[in-house]
Each structure stands twice: as structure tokens, then as C-alpha cells.
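Bit of a strange request maybe. I'm writing a small parser for C-alpha cell strings and I need a real example to test against, not something I typed by hand. Could someone generate the C-alpha cells for this chain?
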Amino acid sequence: MRRLLWAAGWVGVFFWSIFAFAAYGLVELIGGAFMRNADVFSADPGTVEWLFNVFSWLRGFSTSAILVIWGLVSLAILAVPWLFDRLASSTIQAGPYQSAPPPPRRDGVIDLGPNDYTVRDPEAGRPGPAPRIGPRA
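Reply from user aminoacidic:
Good idea to test on real output. This should exercise your parser:
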């Protein structure tokens, strides 16, 4: 269920990205057309230059706005599976992605693995292998 939820989130980001890219293309197309044809609105060269600069600024601002909105909406889309994932993992005590809680510790016992220590052989005076603990084979 967790993977399905994340997959749906990423598919949502994919389709949102396609929509945002189409909006970007439309802004570039319309903004470029207005910039190229700024002389249609006025015959005065100073006014044409001013209109060209305004259209250029609007196109740049729109492109930045589309990028910021795309990022915020993508984060919002991915926040949904993240939130459900966190809510589900807080209610499940031990699932396939979490380990069981460790057993309670006893006072005075040091937890070591079977090969983490050696026993000194008092007769030879040198370390030897650890004694075997548990059932014999």
C-alpha cells in the first residue's frame, strides 16, 4: 500500500509537470509574440522600446512564477503520500519496514555477539576461542 501511494504521488507530479511545461510554452509563445510586435501598439520609438521592455519583464516574471508554482504544487502533491506514510507508520508497531523493539536489558549483562570476545586459557597463558554456548550439534 505504501508503494502504491508513493507511485500515485509521483504520477501526479508527472502530470502536473506536463501541465506546467505546457503553460511555460504558452507564456513563451505569447510573450515572444508581444515582444516582437511591440511596434503595433505605437509608432513612437520611445514608446515601442518601453513596451518591449515591459513585455520582456512580464515574460521573465511569468516564467519564474510558473517555476515557483510548479515546485510548490509538486511539494504539495508529494506531501500527501508522505503524510499518509507517517500516519500509517506511527500506528503500526512492527511492520515489514520496522524492526521489533529490543528485548529488555538485565543489569550486569553485557551484550556481545558470539565472536566478540575471547577466553584466556589459564594453562597456556594466551587467548583461545570463545566457548560454545547453546545446544550441541
